Amino acid sequence: MFIMDGVCYAGSFQENIKVTEAKPLVGRMLLLTFSTGEKRLFDTNLLKGSAFSVLDDEKVFRNPSIFHGVVTWDNGNVDVAPETLYHDSIAYECEDACQV
Q: Looking at domain 17-91, which CATH architecture does it have?
């Protein structure tokens, strides 16, 4: 846990980590590329609360945007901090020939 600008966050602080690419996959999974160069898989089904129910709409889920390193959907009405995406995702390693 850490506090930044008066806000308490779960996990550990990842200085200046940003999402550089977000590719939607089947089952509401995201293949994310971070500013560290790492690729990680994140399950958006882990996002709870009514704010994230819009992701149940396949058309919305399939169209993420990245705004200043933050993944957003629905014209910026829904977003997830890159630190959360990093902390709650798993490392993804694949040979160049691998397709997702």
A: 2-Layer Sandwich (3.30)
